[in-house]
Design a protein that fits this description.
With 100 residues, this protein is of the alpha+beta class. Helices cover 27% and strands 34% of the residues. The chain has a 5-stranded antiparallel beta sheet with strand order 1-5-4-3-2.
């Protein structure tokens, strides 16, 4: 089963286990539910994060097997999956510094 299809299944499980409103976008759910599902299904944990703006954080989750997920999480506890994939090959994320 492809990583994208599995991510869809994880989101569906997260959405049915949490209090998601009917008008919520299909790729969004409460952050706690998505984080739990990423850990349970893909063994992914947070590898890094950065601010998009004062109300939204970009988060990257990766597994030892190389799967990865990028989330945007807001200050109200809602997260949306921006992208998923396989083949993550760096154990850490570092920002490129000017002149480095």
């Amino acid at each position: 089963m492809t990583r994208y299809l599995m991510a869809t299944i994880v989101l569906a499980a997260a959405m049915t286990s949490g209090a998601v409103t009917a008008n919520a976008a299909a790729q969004c759910a409460p952050r706690a539910d998505i984080i739990k599902a990423l850990g349970d299904k893909f063994h992914e944990s947070e590898a890094g994060r950065g601010l998009i703006n004062p109300n939204v954080v970009l988060e990257i989750f990766v597994s030892d097997q190389g799967s990865w997920t990028v989330l945007a999480s807001d200050t109200k506890g809602q997260s949306c999956v921006l992208s998923v994939g396989e083949g993550w090959d760096s154990p850490t994320i570092t920002a490129a510094m000017p002149g480095a």
